[in-house]
Write a structure and sequence with these properties.
11 strands; three-stranded mixed beta sheet; single chain; alpha/beta; globular
Length: 270
Amino acid sequence: MLVPSLHPDHNEYVFGGDFEPSSRLLMQFAILRGLCSASDKLHLTSFSILNLLPYNADDGFYGTPLFTRLFLSLQMLHISIITDQSHEGSFPRGPMMPFWDNTIQPRIFNPSAGFALILTSLTLEGDIDIGEFPDFSFAKLNYPRLSSPSLACFMFSEASDLEGFIIRHKATLCYLKLKHCTIPFPEGGRPSRYWAQIWNRFAEELMSLEELVVESKMDTAPGRPLNYAYFDPGWGYNSDYEEVPGDERDAEALAAFDAVVKSAAVHGQA
């Protein structure tokens, strides 16, 4: 098992389009370059990268075979990504887009990734809404042995296909954790899908699930387990902390789903 835990603070700033990496980011690059240089000898089965800053290096080493080789034999993968939460919207997120577009999705989470057939545990955590801006799609990802996904700050949307990803793995899932996830909708409009619909579908489909963890932000709407997020063209996605018309059954549906999971766990132990 390899667990590089990087500095837990974001300290990157962009002024007038110029980006100068901080000493913390340069240290991150140095650590990961060192791992890449030894990737042919490591043969990792468990790899955790904690507090990863979402920026690409100028020399492009994330795009080299040495980097992707780190992930070839993984059965467990944990990546947590930190951003600057003192701002919202396109200004701080803009410099991060190449990292998501050119590194996270195509270099690590692509359908032909070396670990695809053997991965059993996946933890992928962000601290801003991920799925549309920045983009991330689960649509083509398939891990036949996946038993315990844990996802933080990902959007349930048509573009991300996170709901479909979870359903595709229903035969092997024993554990599911969803933290601070949202459903996007246009400002002034309504969501095309509600949490109640997702929970009801999961209750019908995820028959192998034995443990469910759903964590919401402290300032989510009262009685609503997970939030909705509306798109503001000037800022990006913002969580809606008020009641959203149509969300009245969300908490009830989650409670029913949780009861189904607990019942399955009891019967599985019998």
